[in-house]
């Protein structure tokens, strides 16, 4: 075998590796490098400050609230999106034409840009003229300050995220359900297994790879939320909807504290990495691949 034949596979993947390294790997290492400096993004010189940026971050009450907001947002979004999508998939897993139309309607928000969705929901949640308050008014409830009050603002963003992501998750669950062999259902029927037993003992274990995949994707996406916050709340009111990515944007591109923002980015990278590893370690043995 000639040298060219040995190098040919590497030459074919080299362009993809170069692009990935240039736009993904290099920025990560450069962010880690900047996290140890004080830099205003304009000055040609950087001041080395060691771990001071990390110390300032971890002792800052505002950052602690941002971490709490991000954690709560992620837990609610991942739990509700995954749970509701599974219920919808169980209902829509049929070949009927009507259910096909419903599937398309549920999936359609996934292909709409987050900017458009954020603008739409900003109007829907308007305290005076929004459709949401009009609907709950029909049931005798008073008007809510959806985005203007700290007690409801974060929940409002969760509603938008669930509405946006539920269609994709439902479609993936339906694909997982349709990959289950019909013999499984026939055997359960012959054994006169109850629906709940069939679901918990047969369907759910066989859907574990799908659940495993969706929880990881939803968790990472929730930690990276930015557009809805930037358009709908700008982190307010009273910092109640500020999350890690928007916090990084604020200090990096509004206050021009690049080192401080880079340190926050490193913390975000570490948190997502640790949670992903823990999730893989705890649940990978419970995933049943057929």
What is the CA-based Rg, rounded? Answer: 23 Å
What's the arrangement of strands in the largest beta sheet? 1-2
How many β strands by DSSP? 2
- Separation of the first and last Cα atoms: 38 Å
Structural class: mainly alpha
- Number of continuous helical runs: 13
Estimate the global geometry from the Cα principal axes.
globular
Classify the beta-strand content into a percent band: under 5%
Describe the structure.
- With 290 residues, the protein is mainly α.
- It has helices at 3-34, 52-58, 61-92, 97-107, 114-124, 131-138, 150-178, 182-190, 195-206, 208-223, 227-232, 244-253, 258-283, and strands spanning 37-38, 47-48.
- Helix 1 crosses helix 13 (258-283), helix 3 (61-92) packs parallel to helix 7 (150-178) and helix 12 (244-253) packs antiparallel against helix 13.
Outline:
It contains 13 helices and 2 strands; from the N terminus they run αββαααααααααααα. It is an all-alpha fold and 290 residues long. A two-stranded antiparallel ribbon has the order 1-2.
Question: SSE layout and pairings?
Answer:
Layout: H1 3-34, E1 37-38, E2 47-48, H2 52-58, H3 61-92, H4 97-107, H5 114-124, H6 131-138, H7 150-178, H8 182-190, H9 195-206, H10 208-223, H11 227-232, H12 244-253, H13 258-283
Antiparallel strand pairs: 1-2
Helix pairs in contact: 1-13, 2-13, 3-7, 3-10, 4-7, 7-10, 10-13, 12-13
């Amino acid at each position: 075998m000639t040298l060219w034949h040995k190098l040919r596979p590497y030459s074919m993947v080299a362009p993809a590796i170069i692009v990935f390294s240039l736009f993904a790997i290099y920025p990560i290492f450069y962010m880690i490098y900047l996290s140890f400096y004080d830099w205003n993004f304009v000055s040609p010189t950087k001041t080395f400050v060691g771990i001071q940026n990390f110390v300032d971050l971890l002792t800052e009450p505002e950052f602690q609230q941002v971490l709490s907001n991000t954690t709560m947002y992620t837990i609610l979004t991942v739990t509700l999106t995954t749970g509701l999508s599974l219920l919808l998939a169980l209902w829509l897993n049929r070949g009927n034409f009507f259910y096909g139309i419903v599937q398309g309607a549920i999936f359609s928000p996934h292909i709409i840009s987050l900017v458009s969705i954020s603008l739409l929901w900003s109007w829907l949640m308007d305290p005076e003229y929004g459709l949401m308050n009009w609907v709950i008014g029909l049931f005798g409830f008073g008007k809510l300050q959806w985005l203007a009050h700290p007690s409801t603002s974060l929940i409002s963003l969760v509603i938008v995220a669930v509405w946006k992501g539920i269609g994709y998750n439902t479609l993936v669950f339906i694909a997982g359900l349709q990959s289950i062999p019909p013999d499984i259902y026939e055997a359960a029927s012959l054994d006169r297994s109850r629906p709940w037993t069939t679901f918990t003992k047969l369907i759910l274990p066989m859907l574990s790879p799908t659940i495993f995949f969706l929880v990881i994707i939803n968790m990472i996406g929730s930690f990276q939320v930015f557009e809805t916050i930037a358009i709908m709340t700008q982190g307010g009111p009273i910092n109640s909807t500020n999350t890690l990515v928007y916090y990084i944007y604020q200090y990096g591109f509004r206050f021009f504290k690049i080192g401080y923002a880079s340190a926050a980015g490193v913390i975000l990278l570490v948190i997502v990495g640790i949670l992903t590893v823990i999730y893989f370690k705890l649940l990978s043995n419970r995933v049943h691949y057929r």
